[in-house]
Design a protein that fits this description.
Layout (H helix, E strand, L loop, with lengths): L42 E10 L4 E9 L4 E8 L4 H15 L6 E3 L2
Parallel strand pairs: 1-4
Antiparallel strand pairs: 1-2, 2-3
């Protein structure tokens, strides 16, 4: 390894990003693990993930329509603050213009 000038690269430590110890109100689980929609724009779900680029880690928030499994909104940024999720949801609303009664499920 020394001759080839290779170095060991250790995996990054796991970073906890969920704070379950809070005093905020918890909404009821109306979806109840029924992950299918009967028609478009009836049930949307969201999640956040991250990806490594050559420069840094980026966070991606997506909104998915459970009827078609199509991504209807997304946002990418260098942070995982509320504004990232709000922007993804705003894009989904702008693109799909859902009717009243839409169920939006998030962790």
């Amino acid at each position: 390894m020394r001759d080839l000038k290779l170095k060991v690269r250790y995996p990054k430590r796991f970073k906890v990003t969920t704070d379950s110890n809070h005093s905020e109100a918890i909404s009821p689980n109306r979806l109840d693990r029924q992950f299918q929609g009967a028609e478009p724009n009836q049930v949307w779900t969201t999640d956040i993930t991250y990806l490594w680029t050559l420069q840094r880690r980026l966070y991606v928030a997506v909104v998915i329509d459970l009827f078609s499994r199509q991504v209807v909104g997304w946002a990418i940024d260098e942070h995982m603050r509320t504004s990232l999720c709000v922007r993804a949801l705003q894009i989904a609303f702008w693109r799909r213009k859902p009717p009243l009664g839409l169920l939006h499920h998030s962790d």
